[in-house]
């Protein structure tokens, strides 16, 4: 008599081969049959201007949450709730097949960045159009949020639809779709603390990043942290005539720009004391491995219309935008910017500054170091105020976790290639929070491209990328469940 162990293995193996043989064919057939509807649903979602940063769009943000709820129900979730928070609601959905099976928690965001400057868009940001381009012969959807993150989030909803309608969902699934990611996810920490049980999972799956190229699949293994501050320099108590007072009192704009210029030295190192103290230095081997990823500096420059790259001495472009911390002014204003000329010494000048952080910098510590440094920089005659906004820790994930292995196999299935692990320069601050609060690893399966222009005018998402995502995601569930069993 065969021991039970083998018996179990035999049945599992049969189920597995059935899955493996048919799933690929069925998903492609299913996507072909439902292609137009799946695109139209995304287009409809993109029409709602869910701009979380601008209070004028509050009703639209809330409406988007309702639409996401409805779509999750239609896709096969058993329970979907709109969870109120101190900020915008979080949409929670689940389909629990069997408590003994593994659980995948999908995170995404339904809010979008403001579309400004609107005049630089070729078509209105909330009137999606599908246009064919050289890179996207199947077309790309042009709209704010098409890639970041409505399009990528919605791939998961459609992957769920495929799995539930075709009896291909091998495990449990939970969804947590928030509406404040683009403004710092403030309510998410609040929600996590109160819902640890509800959100319990074996792995977190997110599509809110990119991949190297359509024929070079990659999995994001790192995100940078962030410290975002606003600074205000105040000189005289009112705007002054620049002839009567010019040269005799400190001009806050002159001072602010001088202070900002001093934040980098000639080698483009950041001058804030202690800024690099905890920065994780990669080994020569790790850096060599990174440099193997395909990259063309010429293409990079020509895509941006620049004649040279610029950055920290001693590091390559890919290192500068992933494993090294940065400091950048995001906006600066003050004085007269209306038509014509007005001779004035402004009373105040302002700037918004972001610092991208890497392991093991602590964002609150960096914010404090910046504040100390910046305040010390100010000469007599002005007052400086540093107001911290939001922030978050960096994240790196190993490539030998169950989740990474499952994702890697999924890409092998649908791209026919092993994906390259790659650290990204962007930030999704809640990912490190997930690890701390929910004790689980996050797998970042991004299907966007650098050229998608997220946060910029003419944001778009390839139709091919959208469907490739929907096709790849069910394979992740398949392999993850298999590894966990
Ligand atoms: N999806 C992006 C982050 C991203 C994009 C990471 C591409 C990696 C590759 C996310 O929506 C975002 O924009 N995050 C913000 C931070 C947030 C706190 C406002 C960012 O990175 O600026
Ligand atoms: Mn995003
Ligand atoms: Mn974003």
Automatic annotation (TrEMBL):
Superkingdom of origin organism: Bacteria
Keyword Metal-binding: yes
GO molecular function: metal ion binding; peptidase activity
A Pfam family annotated for this UniProt entry: M20_dimer
Gene3D superfamilies membership: 3.30.70.360, Zn peptidases
GO biological process, one term: proteolysis
Annotated ranges, domain Peptidase M20 dimerisation: 222-381
Keywords noted in UniProt: Hydrolase, Metal-binding, Protease
InterPro entries linked to this entry: Cyt/Met_Dipeptidase, Peptidase_M20, Peptidase_M20_dimer
UniProt-recorded name of the protein: Putative peptidase
Species of the source: Croceibacter atlanticus (strain ATCC BAA-628 / JCM 21780 / CIP 108009 / IAM 15332 / KCTC 12090 / HTCC2559)
């Amino acid at each position: 008599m065969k021991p039970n162990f083998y018996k179990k293995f035999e049945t599992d193996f049969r189920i597995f081969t059935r899955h493996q043989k048919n799933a690929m064919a069925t998903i492609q057939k299913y996507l072909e049959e439902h292609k137009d509807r799946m695109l139209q649903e995304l287009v409809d979602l993109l029409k709602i201007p869910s701009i979380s940063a601008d209070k004028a769009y509050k009703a639209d943000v809330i409406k988007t949450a309702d639409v996401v709820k409805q779509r999750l129900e239609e896709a096969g979730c058993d329970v979907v709730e709109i969870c109120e928070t101190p900020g915008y609601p979080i949409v929670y959905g689940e389909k629990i097949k069997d408590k003994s099976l593994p659980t995948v928690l999908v995170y995404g965001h339904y809010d979008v960045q403001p579309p400004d400057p609107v005049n630089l868009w070729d078509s209105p940001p909330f009137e999606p159009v599908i246009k064919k381009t050289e890179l996207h012969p199947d077309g790309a959807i042009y709209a704010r949020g098409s890639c970041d993150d409505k399009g990528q989030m919605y791939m998961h909803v459609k992957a769920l639809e495929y799995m539930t309608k075709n009896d291909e969902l091998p495990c449990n699934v939970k969804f947590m779709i928030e509406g404040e990611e683009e403004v710092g996810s403030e309510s998410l920490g609040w929600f996590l603390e109160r819902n640890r049980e509800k959100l319990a999972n074996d792995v977190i799956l997110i599509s809110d990043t990119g991949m190297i190229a359509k024929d070079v699949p990659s999995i994001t293994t790192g995100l940078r942290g962030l410290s975002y501050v606003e600074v205000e320099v105040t000189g005289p108590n009112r705007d002054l005539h620049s002839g009567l007072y010019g040269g005799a009192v400190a001009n806050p704009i002159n001072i602010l720009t001088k202070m900002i210029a001093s934040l980098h030295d000639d080698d483009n190192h950041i001058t804030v004391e202690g800024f690099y103290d905890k920065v994780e230095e990669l080994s020569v081997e790790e850096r060599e491995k990174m440099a193997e990823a395909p990259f063309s500096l010429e293409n990079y420059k020509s895509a941006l219309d620049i004649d040279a790259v610029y950055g920290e001495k001693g590091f390559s472009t890919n290192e500068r935008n992933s494993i090294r911390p940065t400091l950048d002014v995001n906006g600066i204003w003050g004085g007269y910017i209306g038509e014509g000329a007005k001779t004035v010494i402004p009373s105040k000048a302002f700037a918004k500054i972001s610092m991208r952080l890497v392991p093991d910098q602590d964002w609150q510590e960096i914010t404090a170091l910046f504040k100390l440094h910046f305040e010390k920089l100010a000469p007599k005659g002005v007052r400086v105020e540093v107001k911290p906004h939001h922030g978050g820790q960096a994240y790196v994930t190993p490539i030998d976790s169950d989740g990474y292995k499952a994702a890697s196999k999924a890409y092998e299935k649908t791209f026919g290639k092993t994906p390259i692990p790659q650290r990204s320069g962007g930030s999704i601050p809640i990912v490190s929070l997930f690890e701390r609060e929910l004790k689980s690893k996050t797998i970042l399966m991004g299907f966007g491209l650098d050229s998608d222009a997220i946060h910029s005018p003419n944001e778009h998402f390839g139709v091919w990328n959208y469907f490739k995502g929907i096709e790849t995601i069910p394979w992740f569930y398949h392999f993850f469940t298999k590894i966990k069993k």
